[in-house]
């Protein structure tokens, strides 16, 4: 049992190490090669492919290719395309064009995004075969995914790879290692003789009937709005921190030189805040927990707008990283649990798919484009340092106001009565 847990820990570590190599530092690289105005497109593509690739790969894993092998194939392809994106950056330097870089990056992301769900399937299958309770055994294993994400962030931070195309090669190397490792994992069954299903059942569209329930419809709509916050700081936090380096006063500040390391505090907080969710859900219920998430997102953005790389400003930056754990976990994980508890078991998995589509799909995609528009409005063309940073602050305050207004509307429109004894 210990052996299988360790093997799954390694798998989860590697999956998220692939992602952590570039997710929070890509914006810095793009800004330095003159693509700052396109950051939103690079992050929006993650949401676009999340609308269909996980479902398609899930069908392939169920019917034709065992999940652990498909995991390896996807990571191999993702690594190859990410390496090609890195090669383009290396070959053309600061002259690399959007058309040379983005297509390879987009293809890599398209094959990476389904691997999170595939990794979960491999884990659940292996733990079940070992006679272990997945509810108890999986969370401690999954935590090491966040550890891998953090370590990968630290590598690109302290090597200086955060500033260039090298971060893409780091991601590709992790991916190739995992591609090989995946083929050694316990076999997952496939059902080639599965009975034919309708198009609606195959793609989980029956779960959209949940929108007929006014309470669930409101919940999903606000999940979409809150999902718009997800990629804002992933895409723009480190470029914002890096921009302070344009001033001699801040150029050598620790928070500027190690902005990706500073950002990693968010992931550390995320890991710790997971432990708070069972208590808060049972004590306060989903509505108050979601309101806490809205408040945390507003604080996250406000602290970034008001903060700075030294003195009290640095304290505000650190606080913004800490509250991220509450903002992310109290929304993503608590929302997933609420959907699980309030849907029929026949469409439970499909309902989770709808929740993910509204948050990591539509929400993250539209949020990335909207965030880019806001940042461009306040920062493009600002050559004076003080004006530039004032523009960044204004953008963060707009994001904070958005989270706050949406939170107030959620409090008014989401009808919910908590039953402490049920934990719902």
What are the SSEs and their pairings?
Layout: H1 2-20, H2 26-32, H3 39-50, H4 53-63, H5 67-92, H6 98-112, H7 114-129, H8 134-158, H9 166-182, H10 199-202, H11 214-227, H12 230-243, H13 254-257, H14 259-263, H15 265-273, H16 277-306, H17 311-341, H18 348-379, H19 385-413
Helix pairs in contact: 1-7, 1-8, 1-9, 2-12, 3-6, 3-12, 3-18, 4-7, 5-6, 5-7, 5-9, 8-15, 11-18, 11-19, 12-18, 15-17, 16-17, 16-19, 17-18, 18-19
Descriptors:
single chain; 424 residues; mainly alpha; Growth Hormone, Chain: A; 2 domains; 19 helices; 0% strand
Description:
This protein has 19 helices and no strands. It has 424 residues and is an all-alpha fold. The protein folds into 2 domains: 1-190, Up-down Bundle (Growth Hormone, Chain: A), CATH 1.20.1250.20; 201-418, Growth Hormone, Chain: A (Up-down Bundle), CATH 1.20.1250. Helix 5 (67-92) runs antiparallel to helix 6 (98-112), helix 5 (67-92) packs antiparallel against helix 9 and helix 16 (277-306) packs antiparallel against helix 19 (385-413). The chain is globular, with a radius of gyration of 21 Å.
Q: Considering the protein shown, what is the CATH homologous superfamily of the largest domain? A: MFS general substrate transporter like domains
User: Which geometry do the CA atoms define?
Assistant: globular
| N-to-C span | 33 Å
Mean pLDDT: 90
The CATH topology of the largest domain turns out to be Growth Hormone, Chain: A
CATH architecture of the largest domain: Up-down Bundle
Structural class: mainly alpha
The SSE order reads HHHHHHHHHHHHHHHHHHH
How large is the count of helical segments?
A: 19
Radius of gyration: 21 Å
> Helical percent range?
over 70%
Strand content: under 5%
Number of domains: 2
């Amino acid at each position: 049992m210990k052996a299988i847990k360790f093997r799954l820990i390694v798998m989860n570590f590697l999956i998220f190490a692939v992602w952590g190599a570039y997710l929070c530092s890509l914006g810095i690289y793009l800004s330095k090669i003159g693509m700052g105005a396109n950051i939103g497109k690079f992050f929006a593509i993650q949401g676009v492919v999340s609308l269909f690739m996980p479902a398609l790969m899930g069908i392939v894993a169920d019917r034709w290719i065992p999940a652990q092998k498909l995991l390896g194939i996807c990571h191999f392809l993702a690594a190859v395309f990410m390496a090609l994106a890195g090669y383009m950056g290396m070959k053309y330097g600061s002259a690399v064009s959007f058309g040379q870089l983005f297509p390879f990056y987009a293809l890599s992301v398209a094959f990476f995004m389904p691997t999170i769900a595939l990794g979960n399937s491999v884990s659940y299958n292996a733990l079940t075969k070992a006679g272990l309770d997945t509810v108890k055994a999986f969370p401690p294993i999954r935590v090491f995914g966040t550890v891998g994400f953090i370590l990968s962030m630290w590598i690109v931070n302290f090597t200086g790879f955060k500033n260039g195309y090298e971060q893409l090669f780091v991601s590709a190397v992790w991916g190739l290692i995992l591609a090989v490792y995946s083929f050694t994992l316990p076999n997952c069954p496939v059902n080639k003789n599965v009975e034919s299903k309708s198009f609606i059942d195959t793609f989980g569209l029956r779960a959209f009937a949940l929108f007929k329930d006014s309470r669930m419809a409101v919940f999903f709509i606000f999940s979409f709005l809150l999902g718009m916050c997800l990629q804002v700081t992933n895409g723009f936090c480190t470029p914002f921190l890096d921009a302070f380096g344009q001033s001699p006063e801040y150029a050598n500040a620790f928070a500027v030189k190690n902005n990706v390391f500073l950002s990693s505090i968010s992931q550390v907080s995320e890991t710790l805040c997971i432990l708070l969710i069972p208590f808060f859900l049972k004590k306060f219920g989903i509505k108050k927990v979601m309101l806490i998430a809205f408040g945390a997102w507003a604080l996250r953005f406000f602290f970034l707008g008001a903060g700075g790389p030294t003195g009290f400003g640095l304290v505000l930056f650190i606080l913004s990283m800490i509250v991220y754990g509450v903002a992310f976990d109290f929304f993503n994980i608590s929302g997933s649990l609420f959907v699980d508890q309030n849907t029929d078991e026949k469409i439970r998995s499909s309902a989770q798919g709808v929740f993910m589509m509204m948050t990591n799909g539509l929400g993250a995609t539209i949020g990335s484009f909207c965030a880019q528009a806001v940042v461009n409005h306040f920062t493009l063309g600002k050559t004076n340092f003080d004006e530039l940073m004032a523009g960044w602050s204004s953008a963060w305050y707009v994001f904070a106001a958005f989270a706050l207004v949406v939170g107030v509307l959620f409090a008014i429109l989401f009808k919910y009565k908590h039953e402490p004894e049920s934990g719902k």
